[in-house]
């Protein structure tokens, strides 16, 4: 009996070890299928030539990794897409724009979600990636409703964020100290805001938070705080400032009258194939653009009257 | 007849011998399996530790050897701007922030924790062991994000209103960390004080010392290495804590002028930027160098702990 129990124990040990090894081996496995479509982008598989609008497509699962700002939109559309297409698997993960771009460039993810152009990130082989702009997000300077300023000129905004102006009374408000709420230096939101609202001027040091929710909470609670948020994050607790008397709304952004906006990108390595292609087409379809995207606080890419390239050059469509 | 008996004897002997032999064989294989399994476990552990160290070191050192940042510049410069032209990698504000917040937390938590430990062992042992100890052990299990969230919701506004400042500050980080490491310090210090032999206390009391003199001069002094171990363990936890701290310190990459100024720590610098930087770029490597610093610091803490442990053995 004793020996038997010993043997059993040994067996469980071995079992546990094997299980450990097993899971280790299994972990990279889901990445394998994701790599395949990315590795052979030049030769489209024959099956999808006749696809059109099939409802039962099966194949490799799609992984979409990256920007947390874009994540809710991709999650929602992935859910809708999977409901329509039985058997398609789409996994959506966050991790940040940098993670998304490097994962898709290395082939670990099918789609890399990013708030910024791949060209803007050092170390990304941008020429290997294909850009799919799926939505536009507007950003605005955000203050607590207690701040009695509704509009700032661009110069005032620059002076505030570079630390030249430190009191609201200098821009027509009450005598209240200005507190800056920043994003980390590597953040895509910071890059966009700094480029289009501050003309690339370097921001002074301030409170730094990564998540939009925390930034909003801090701005709402700290008297005299100013930060910047994507339009989808505004609610009653924070107020969006006009820039040079232009309000940050869909119409002004579409015509580029209000310049602080960015594309939401979904990058693929080479041209997308199969399910990934169908999924990207689904996001660009009128149904998603007109409904889901607007509901989640983004702007439809199809409404844009202008086009902007990675260098920031704007052309009329 | 003799012959028969002999025959039976040899038969029996050989039987026993055979039985022993087979038994030994089974025992041998059993021993071998056990030993192999244990060895594989140990080897796996060693391999994991070594490869993690190697990985972090290779990534972290490439800041200096591939990207050409000088080590002294990295450690002492105060300007952190990896995206700028030229890129500046001064992590001194992060290092200083980590040390300050850890020291502040230890300064607050050590007297409180050791005091609570004395209460639980010397002053009110019954209540202490039955009620306080389990409660404190429960506190160890609270996830750090909860501490951070409580700090963000209660502590930061409180400091803001009391001192008319931002609220996000070195003080807030120190207080949250102190609360977090208090249970660790208390429970380790309790064990250390409990280990002091009763004879020592009796001898001290017999010499005419008061209860307080006994606690201060005898109990605390003989358990000092243990209490220091408790504090260092707490500090090691505080130094490596990322989430709770990040939520309340404001993450300003600037040297703080006072307790009420916002700061950055090595951990918060890493967590805020890791998702947005690209593998292999100097910015990303700089974050790995900060991770390497953290790893080296934890080695230092462990060495201090080992040193203290040896000291206790000598006593």
UniProtKB/TrEMBL annotation, chain A:
Q: Which Gene3D superfamilies match?
A: Periplasmic binding protein-like II
Query: Where is this chain compositionally biased, Low complexity type?
Result: 26-59
Spell out the GO cellular component terms annotated for this protein, sorted alphabetically and separated by semicolons: plasma membrane
In the bilayer, the protein is annotated as: Lipid-anchor
The record's keywords, sorted A to Z, are: Cell membrane, Lipoprotein, Membrane, Palmitate, Phosphate transport, Signal, Transport
Residues spanning the signal sequence: 1-26
GO process annotations (BP): phosphate ion transport
User: Which intervals hold domain PBP?
Assistant: 53-287
Gene Ontology molecular function, alphabetical = phosphate ion binding
For region Disordered, the annotated ranges are 26-62
Looking up InterPro entries in the UniProt record yields: PBP_domain, Phos-bd, Phosphate_ABC_transporter
The record's annotation in Pfam families points to: PBP_like_2 (PF12849)
Query: Where is this protein found?
Result: Cell membrane
Q: Which PROSITE patterns match?
A: PROKAR_LIPOPROTEIN
Q: How does it assemble?
A: The complex is composed of two ATP-binding proteins (PstB), two transmembrane proteins (PstC and PstA) and a solute-binding protein (PstS).
Function as written in the Swiss-Prot or TrEMBL entry? Involved in the system for phosphate transport across the cytoplasmic membrane.
Q: Which family does it belong to?
A: Belongs to the PstS family.
Name the chain's protein.
Answer: Phosphate-binding protein
TrEMBL record, chain B:
GO aspect biological process, one term: phosphate ion transport
This protein's record includes keyword Cell division: no
**Known NCBIfam families for this protein?**
phosphate_pstC (TIGR02138)
Q: What is this protein called?
A: Phosphate transport system permease protein
What range(s) does the ABC transmembrane type-1 domain occupy?
95-305
This entry carries the following GO cellular component terms, namely:
plasma membrane
Any matching Pfam family: BPD_transp_1
Positions of transmembrane segments: 36-57, 87-114, 135-159, 165-193, 214-236, 286-308
Its function, per the record, reads: Part of the binding-protein-dependent transport system for phosphate; probably responsible for the translocation of the substrate across the membrane.
């Amino acid at each position: 009996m004793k020996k038997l129990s010993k043997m059993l124990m040994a067996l469980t040990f071995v079992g546990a070890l094997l299980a450990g090894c097993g899971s280790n081996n299994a972990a990279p496995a889901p990445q394998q299928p994701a790599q395949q479509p990315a590795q052979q982008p030049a030769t489209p598989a024959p099956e999808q030539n006749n696809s059109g609008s099939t409802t039962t497509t099966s194949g490799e699962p799609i992984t979409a990794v990256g920007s947390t700002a874009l994540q809710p939109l991709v999650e929602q559309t992935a859910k809708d897409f999977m409901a329509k297409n039985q058997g398609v698997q789409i996994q959506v993960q966050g991790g940040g724009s940098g993670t998304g771009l490097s994962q898709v460039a290395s082939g670990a993810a099918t789609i890399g979600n990013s708030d910024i152009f791949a060209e803007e990130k050092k170390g990304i082989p941008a020429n290997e990636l294909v850009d799919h702009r799926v939505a536009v997000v507007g950003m605005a300077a955000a203050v607590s409703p207690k701040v009695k300023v509704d509009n700032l000129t661009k110069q005032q905004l620059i002076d505030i964020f570079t630390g030249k102006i430190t009191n609201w009374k200098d821009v027509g408000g009450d005598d209240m100290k200005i507190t800056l709420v920043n994003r980390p230096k590597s953040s895509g939101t910071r890059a966009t805001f700094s480029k289009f609202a501050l003309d690339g001027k370097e921001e002074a040091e301030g409170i730094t938070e990564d998540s939009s929710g925390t930034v909003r909470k801090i701005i709402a609670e700290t008297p005299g705080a100013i930060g910047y948020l994507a339009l989808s994050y505004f609610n009653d607790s924070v107020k969006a400032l006009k820039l040079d008397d232009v309000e940050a709304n869909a119409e002004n952004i579409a015509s580029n009258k209000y310049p602080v906006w960015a594309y939401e990108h979904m990058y693929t390595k080479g041209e997308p194939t199969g399910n990934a292609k169908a999924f990207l087409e689904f996001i660009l379809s009128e149904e998603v653009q007109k409904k889901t995207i607007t509901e989640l606080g983004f702007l439809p890419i199809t409404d844009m009257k202008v086009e902007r390239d990675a260098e920031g050059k704007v052309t009329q469509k | 007849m003799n012959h028969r008996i002999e025959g039976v004897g040899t038969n029996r002997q050989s039987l026993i011998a055979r039985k022993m032999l087979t038994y030994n064989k089974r025992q041998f294989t059993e021993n071998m399996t056990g030993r192999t399994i244990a060895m594989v476990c140990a080897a796996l552990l060693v391999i994991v530790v070594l490869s993690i160290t190697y990985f972090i070191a290779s990534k972290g050192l490439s800041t200096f050897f591939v990207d050409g940042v000088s080590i002294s510049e990295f450690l002492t410069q105060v300007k952190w701007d990896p995206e700028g032209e030229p890129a500046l990698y001064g992590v001194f504000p992060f290092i200083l922030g980590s040390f300050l917040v850890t020291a502040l937390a230890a300064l607050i938590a050590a007297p409180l924790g050791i005091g609570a430990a004395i209460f639980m062992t010397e002053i009110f042992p019954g209540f202490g062991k039955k009620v306080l100890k389990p409660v404190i052990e429960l506190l160890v299990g609270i996830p750090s994000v909860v501490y951070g969230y409580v700090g963000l919701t209660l502590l930061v506004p409180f400091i803001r209103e009391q001192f008319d400042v931002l609220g996000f500050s070195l003080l807030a980080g120190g207080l949250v960390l102190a609360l977090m490491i208090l249970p660790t310090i208390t429970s380790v210090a309790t064990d250390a004080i409990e280990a002091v032999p009763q004879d020592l206390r009796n001898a001290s009391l017999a010499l005419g010392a008061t209860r307080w003199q006994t606690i201060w001069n005898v109990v605390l002094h003989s358990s000092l290495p243990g209490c220091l171990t408790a504090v260092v363990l707490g500090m090691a936890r505080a130094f490596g804590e990322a989430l709770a701290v990040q939520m309340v310190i404001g993450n300003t990459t600037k040297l703080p002028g006072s307790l009420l100024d916002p700061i950055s720590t090595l951990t918060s610098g890493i967590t805020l930027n890791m998702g947005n930087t690209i593998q292999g770029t100097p910015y990303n490597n700089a974050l790995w160098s900060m991770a390497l610093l953290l790893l080296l610091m934890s080695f230092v803490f462990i060495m201090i702990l080992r040193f203290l442990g040896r000291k206790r053995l000598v006593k």
